[in-house]
Amino acid sequence: MSPTEQLIDFVRSTRLDEIDLEARRIVRTMITTVLGTTVAGAGEDGCRELRGLLLENGGAPQATSLVHGDRLPAASAALLNGVMARALDYCDAMEPGLHLGSSLVPAALAAAEFRGGVSGEEFVTAVAVGAELGSRLNLTEALYDGLDPTGVVAPLAATATVGRILGLSGDQLLAALGLAFNRAGGSFQSNVDGSLAVRLIQGWAAEAGVTCALWALRGLTGPHNFLDGVYGYTHLYGRGQVDATTFVEELGDHYALTGTMFKKYPSCGLTQGVTELALQARRSGILADRIDRVEVVLPPYAYRLVGHPFAPGTNPRVDGQFSARFCVANAFLRGSSRLEHFTPTAVTGKEVGDLAARVHVTADPALDTRGHSAADLIVVSQGSEQRFGLDIAPGFPGNALSQGYHDRRLRDCLAATAYPLPDSRIEKLMESLKALEELDDVTDLVADLISPEADADRTA
């Protein structure tokens, strides 16, 4: 079989009991994490406006917007839930900046509702095969060269997940993936400029997964040589330096999705290391009001994404999420890095801005040899210089977070929403998620993810 045929067969035929146990654990963590961040992000900038537009557009009531409970077309529900999931940037990710879960989980949930229900076993399997396809299509920093990995890969991964849930035939899945290939795109300039496009791209990928699968079900086709054709994925994104056979090496035996990281702090993955170092420095006795200067050293790729000057604009939360200067200043000043530290008021505070002005960021190619998330921090305080460094930031493979931390993050997200859930629903949800693979119908979770305090058009 060709690499494309092998990927399609893997998506369609893999059983849950065939998936590596560590990969299954990561997928379950991805699902629970994203459900939490979706609830927490429901009231964030862009989410409210997008919801209003989707309600105005209307359409068949096929799936549900979480928190609000609106009944929307499946693609619209996936779009909105995907945007909400990424709004706080507290979700899973993968080097060099690929976010899969915040597209796969909303797309899978919308597809499950569209289908009329799906077991927890099949839901986890569908997310797993989509995440694995996406992880294998993921490229390097140099090949992306400013392209947003999420915008490039997540539409294909989400389409694979939805295709599995909807039971697409091999030919239909080929057509759907070809269509999704034509939806791939996006730039990291969105992140650098602090725009809402960062979260919108995530939603677009989820929407594309549903749309492309439904189009293929109706007989619409995409290029069948999307992967390795003359103008296919390996040419356009792999720049002729990648052979499609590498995408299927040890397929089904080794799971590339085990390279997934989960964030300890609610900001860009490339700020995790410097945040950790700033907190280490603070615990060593260095206090914010005694700092003369902080030097942050990052690999060049990280520097280009988060090393720019800190100048909050119209979207302060995004500006803070993608600023090494802000994240370091925040950690020194507030002694932690939490969701409430990234509100517009917290990001634009004078005290944190003044400290951020004393944080200077440089790039050093030597850090590339130490790892994607490597960072150094040099603090000058009262004339004394102290150095801190790490090679693997917390949450990345090799420095994984504990299950207890994942549980706390989920509860923090559920508590941080603008539309609180009743305690009874939270406890029921937590218990259900512990037995995710055993659920008879994963769409039963939806009722516990709707807030009675959120206004909604619940027309069935």
Provide an overview of this structure.
By secondary structure, the protein is of the alpha+beta class. The protein has two domains: 3-263 and 402-449, 2-methylcitrate dehydratase PrpD; 269-390, 2-methylcitrate dehydratase PrpD (60s Ribosomal Protein L30, Chain: A, 2-Layer Sandwich). The protein is built from 20 helices and eight strands. The chain has helices at 3-13, 21-41, 47-57, 74-86, 101-115, 120-137, 141-144, 149-166, 170-181, 189-192, 197-217, 233-236, 272-283, 300-306, 316-321, 324-334, 344-347, 350-356, 403-416, 423-434, and strands spanning 63-64, 71-72, 92-93, 261-262, 291-298, 359-363, 375-381, 384-390. The strands form three sheets. A four-stranded mixed beta sheet has the order 6-5-7-8. Strands 1-2 form a two-stranded antiparallel sheet. A two-stranded antiparallel sheet has the order 3-4. The longest helix has 21 residues, at 21-41. It is globular, with a radius of gyration of 21 Å. The model has no long low-confidence stretch (mean pLDDT 97). It comes from Streptomyces brevispora. Residues 5-240 form the MmgE/PrpD N-terminal domain. Belongs to the PrpD family. This is 2-methylcitrate dehydratase PrpD.
How many runs of DSSP E, i.e. beta strands? 8
| Sheet of most strands | 4 strands, mixed
Taking strands numbered 1, 2, ... along the chain, how are they ordered across the largest sheet? 6-5-7-8
Total discrete domains: 2
Rg over CA atoms, rounded to whole Å, is 21 Å
Assembly type of the shown chains?
single chain
Low-confidence stretches: none
H/E topology pattern? HHHEEHEHHHHHHHHEHEHHHHHEEEHH
Distance between the termini: 45 Å
**What is the CATH top level name of the largest domain?**
Mainly Alpha
